[in-house]
Amino acid sequence: MIKVGIIGGSGLDDPNILKNAREIEVETPYGSPTSVLTCGSIEGVDVVIIARHGKNHSIYPSKVNFRANIYALKEQGCTHILASTAVGSLRQDIAPGHLVFPSQFIDHTRRRETTFFDEDVVVHTPMAEPFCQNLIDLLSLSANHMGLPFHKNKTVITIEGPRFSTKAESHMFRSWNADVINMSTVPEVVLAREKKMHYAAIAMSTDYDCWHEEEAPVTWEMILDTMKKNASNVIKLFLDVIPKIKEYDDGCI
Fold it and tell me: In Å, how far from its chain's centre is CA 59?
């Protein structure tokens, strides 16, 4: 049975998109998830929403309990995850307001628990294709149908945060062929893959990081402003794609 987890970031954890929404509190072997779980359905598909940074955005990136969040969604029976995230653009053509559906990541974090297999047994999880290509294709078809500007099969680099990059770092990440930058995709996608859950990121470009000399350096206020202006597009994407997942032949895991 298909069940979809939505991991909301920066205001994209709206329970009003669910029918018969109810909140439940859970505990995991890894501690508490970063928010209560909001359970309900979208056009007959069971959905569970979790707020990555807490309901009031009080948890900074490196303190997010990624293992508890993914474990909780798996225990609730989620088979797929759609994760919204704000990203900075490292490419001229990925303008603020554009959506990005990455297919690869570069891990530039240092302090995070990145695996469930850190005791008793060692499991080496294949990570050549970390994101679900079938979900990427569904998201792309939907965005195209709605006339939303988007980019698919790009590379996201995740940094530790909460600070933003220096100009030197930003240019370095560009030289590594990263297309967008954020603070949340890793280890989230890694843990989902370990739990054999189909994962796709709905990334919204909010700024040009700081490499772009003609643009003002990124600020948190800039990110929030762009997210508020475009959050409705991401929610429309959720509402359009989720009912189609159950009809899609998905065999990437």
Answer: 16
Of 11-20, 49-58, 227-236, minimum mean pLDDT range: 11-20
Where along the chain do its domains lie? 3-245
**Sign of the CA dihedral 132, 199, 165, 113?**
negative
Helices 133-146/220-245 angle, 10° precision: 100
Please indicate whether residue 253 or residue 48 has the higher confidence score (pLDDT). 48
Closest by CA position to 112, among listed 160, 179, 60, 173: 160
Question: Given 179, 207, 240, 250, which residue is catalytic?
Answer: 207
The tokens for 195 are: 């739990």
Could you read off the pLDDT of 233-250 as tens digits, one per residue? 888 999 999 999 987 666
Structure tokens at 143: 């965005």
Q: What architecture is the 3-245 domain classified under in CATH?
A: 3-Layer(aba) Sandwich (3.40)
169 sits in which H/E element: helix 167-175
Q: Which of 46, 179, 209, 240 is catalytic?
A: 209
Cα distance between residue 39 and residue 50, in whole Å: 9
Q: Give 144's contacts (C-beta < 8 A, 6+ positions apart).
A: 150
Hey, what are 80's tokens? 């797929």
Does the active-site annotation cover 209?
yes
Which DSSP state fits 62? G
